[in-house]
């Protein structure tokens, strides 16, 4: 079991939802956290609230994950402020609301769907690569948790670009398994719908989604955070994705690969 006590975790998209809950969970176990988000107000407030209860355990750094320099700065802040960076959580994500195939929809513009790809996929690839380079150069161990989604393996036709980014994150993570030889673990969490700001905002922005999503069972955000913690703490889970589903709870996702 990997002990998070005394470790330092870097979390993107940490001002709300899973990122915020994970930060609180890690700090309760004695881990220090470096919080990155574009929502400076909420991020600063979270760091302040954590430090009030657990002095010197959290800091906030503005980080727009579409900017590689912001990701570098966030990760480097952990080393500057706390002397080390042990865990990298690539969590920031956006839903990509609107009809990709309706030429009049704002979601159909190249800018709109590029943004979904940049935040949900490109930033995850870069965040993983930057952390891994850091640990390999120093011959240190490390843990990456990437955030995929159940839409990586369950169809989500009303948000095909989102689903494609999350499937790519899952598969990228599986292909990081050889890093475990260098004591670097890369895992992913793939939750079904969960009532965070991402879902409530998407339903507000696109009321057509309400009949499709509103009736679905959701998973509790705390159960999703259990899966994040398992990825960090369970050293046997190298390269694995943990799905978080309404009926089955947290399970290792087992993709079916053809025999060649
Ligand atoms: N809630 C769900 O149903 C669900 C299901 C599966 C996967 N996910 C994934 O979980 C992750 C966290 O989402 P959440 O549900 O906690 O939503 P959330 O909206 O509560 O949190 C996402 C955070 O990311 C931040 N963010 C957005 N764009 C950013 C950027 N460019 N740079 C840095 N930060 C940025 C937001 O400000 C927000 O604080 C996302 O990757 C999301 O795709 C969510």
TrEMBL record:
<dbReference type="GO" id="GO:0005737">
    <property type="term" value="C:cytoplasm"/>
</dbReference>
<comment type="similarity">
    <text>Belongs to the short-chain dehydrogenases/reductases (SDR) family.</text>
</comment>
<dbReference type="InterPro" id="IPR002347">
    <property type="entry name" value="SDR_fam"/>
</dbReference>
<protein>
    <submittedName>
        <fullName>Uncharacterized protein</fullName>
    </submittedName>
</protein>
<dbReference type="Pfam" id="PF00106">
    <property type="entry name" value="adh_short"/>
</dbReference>
<dbReference type="InterPro" id="IPR036291">
    <property type="entry name" value="NAD(P)-bd_dom_sf"/>
</dbReference>
<keyword id="KW-0560">Oxidoreductase</keyword>
<dbReference type="GO" id="GO:0016616">
    <property type="term" value="F:oxidoreductase activity, acting on the CH-OH group of donors, NAD or NADP as acceptor"/>
</dbReference>
